[in-house]
Amino acid sequence: MFEGISGKKAVVTGGGSGIGKEICLRFGAAGAGLAVCDVDGDAAKVVAAEIKEQGGNARAYGIDVSDYAAVQAVCTGIAEELGGIDILVNNAGITRDGLLLRMKEEDFDQVIAVNLKGAFNFIKACCRPMIKTRWGRVINITSVVGQMGNAGQANYASAKAGMIGLTKSAAKELASRNITVNAVAPGFIATPMTEELDQATRDVYIAAIPLRRTGTPADVAGVCLFLASSAADYITGQVIRVDGGMVM
Ligand code: NAP
To answer: Is 43 touching ligand 1 by the criterion CB < 6 Å?
Structure first.
């Protein structure tokens, strides 16, 4: 029988904006209890308040995903306050674009620290409560550039490719505890992250998308909801592209 995520406890990183915000709102509307985590604690509070206004259950946490010790402490608190952790969505991400020869060391390190190490930090902290209950879902938001590479994004593409390796390794390690680990790879999604692109660059990307439009945060959130539901019970270690057919 199909079961949604009503009553499940979900942690979403980068939940204050863009794709993460939409995932929080969709999960909240589906009846999950939410820990909305974001480095911008005020943005997380706004999203948690919106979920509560709609009758849902949510708390906000200001947390930098790249801070290992802080993440372990916050997740211990989340498990106590929400009454467990069933679902983790590693969505927090940043870009610091530049051509390889000009890329600063700190821009490489920072992008790896947030996108890749941040996901490791949260998986490590959240999988313990999942192991206890013998049920869990981990969803890592990677990117199509982690599979295809992208000029000007050596740091970001490396981090996102690393997330795919992390997804597959964690899927193998955690399967025996009934925890699935999958990655969702968006293409070009209209969010604050992509809004600084000029129209000419936008047009080039759209021309390469068979569905001839940019994606929306809802396009990505719907796939995350599916992966968190019982409809995806037998899916683990996969990378699901949500890109309008950009990569085939
Ligand atoms: P976004 O609107 O910029 O949202 C990212 C969120 O993560 C922001 O709220 C940001 O906070 C937060 N964040 C940044 N650094 C953090 C940290 N150290 N700790 C905790 N939270 C942090 O971007 P988005 O487009 O929704 O991206 C969401 C995810 O999708 C990212 O992993 C991104 O790489 C991935 N993705 C996006 C696209 C796209 O086309 N948009 C395509 C493929 C993959 P601040 O706003 O305060 O920095």
So the answer is: yes
Tell me the mean pLDDT in the region 17-22. 98
Q: Ligand 1: distance of its center to the CA of 49 in Å?
A: 20
pLDDT digits (tens, 9 = 90+) for 122-180: 999 999 999 999 999 999 999 999 999 999 999 999 999 999 999 999 999 999 999 99
Distant-in-sequence, close-in-space partners of 246: CB < 8 Å, separation ≥ 6: 144, 187, 188, 208, 209, 210
pLDDT (tens digit per residue) in 202-212: 999 999 999 99
Ligand 1 centre and the CA of 248: distance in Å? 24
Ligand 1 contacts CB of residue 13 (under 6 A): yes
pLDDT at 123: 98
Verify whether ligand 1 is closer than 6 Å to residue 18 (CB atom).
yes
Query: Catalytic: 205?
Result: no
Q: Check: CB of residue 64 under 8 Å from CB of residue 13.
A: no
Encoded tokens for 84:
């467990």
Architecture of domain 9-241: 3-Layer(aba) Sandwich (3.40)
How high is the pLDDT of residue 182?
99
Domain spans in the chain, listed from the N-terminal domain onward = 9-241
Q: Is 0.85 topped by the overall pTM? A: yes
How many contiguous H segments (helices) and E segments (strands) does the chain have?
9, 7
Q: Identify the helix (H) or strand (E) that includes residue 13.
A: strand 9-13
Q: How many whole angstroms from 138 Cα to the centroid of ligand 1?
A: 17
Query: In DSSP terms, which residues pair with 198 in a beta bridge?
Result: none
Of the residues 68, 156, 205, 234, only one is catalytic, namely: 156
90: nearest Cα among 164, 140, 137:
140
